[in-house]
Amino acid sequence: MALFICTACGTQYPESAKPPAQCVICEEERQYVPARGQGWTTLEALQRSHTNTYREYENGIIGIGSTPSFAIGQRALLVRTDAGNILWDCVATLDDTTVTMIEGLGGIDAIAISHPHFYTTMVEWARAFAARIHLHAADKAWIMRNDPAVELWDGETKTLWDGVTLVRCGGHFEGGTVLHWASGAGGRGVVCAGDILTVTTDRKWLSFMRSYPNFIPLAARTVEHIGATLKPFAFDTIYGHYFDRVIAKDAKQVLEKSIARYVAAVNGTRGYE
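The chain above was modelled as a monomer; its predicted structure follows.
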C-alpha cells in the first residue's frame, strides 16, 4: 500500500493499492488537471528525485522549497519565534536533511497552512516533528488525508501564542488564512500570506483571485473584506508563496492601495490611458 501524491498539486492521499482515479483538488475549478493527464508519485520517489532548498530572509524566517520545483512550486516558511517554531504552509518534499536542519533549529511546534492547495504532505511533517496542524474548519472538506494531528479552528482569528495569530481572510478559499507575527521585521510586524494575498511579479502590488491558473477573479466585496480583516494588525513585510515574492517594507500600505486598485478595476471605475 502506498500514500500517493498528485504531481499537479502535491496533495497526498491515504494509503491505497493503486493511485486514486482522480485528484479531487485538481478536478475543482481553482486547480486543473494538466494536459498530459493526472500523474502520481510517492514521498519515497520524491526523496530520490528532489531535495529542499533553504533561504534565510530575516532573523527568524527561513524559506523551504523543493528543488527542482514540484507541483505548484510554493515554498514553506519556518517562522522561529521566542515561544516556538511554526511551519507556515507546506511543501511535498520532506527528507532526512530537512528534518536534521529543522531539528537543529528547535524543531516545529505548530503547522499552519493558508489553504488546501498547500496541504501536500502535512501529515508527514506533523509526524516527523510531533507537531499539531492548524487548519480552518471552513476548508475541512478539502482534507484528503486526515490524521489525529489535524486540529480545526473556527471563527476569524486563532492565537497560537502571544504575538502569533492566524487570521481568516477568506477569498481564494472560504477558510483562506494568513499568519501575523507581531515581532517579525524587527518588531514592525510580518504577514505570511501564501497566495491568499498574492505578491505580484513586480513585487510592488498584491492581487487576489479565486483561481490563479484559470483566471477567476474575486468579487470586490470579498477583497474589501480581506482588507477589513487585516486592518487591526500592524505589519511592514508580507511574505508570499514563492521564494522571490516578498514585499519587504510598507506592506500594509501596499495592501491598502492594492485593494483600492483591484476594486476599481473589477467595478469598471478605474481609468486607463
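The domain at 2-267 is CATH 3.60.15.10 (Metallo-beta-lactamase; Chain A).
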